[in-house]
Amino acid sequence: MAVTTVPGRNGTAVIAAGDEIGVILRWDPKTGDRIGDPITGSRARIMQITSLALPTGSTLLIATDSDSTLWRWDASTGESVGEPMSLGSEYPTVAPAVVDGGAAVHLGDGQHGP
Question: Global pTM?
Answer without folding.
Answer: 0.76
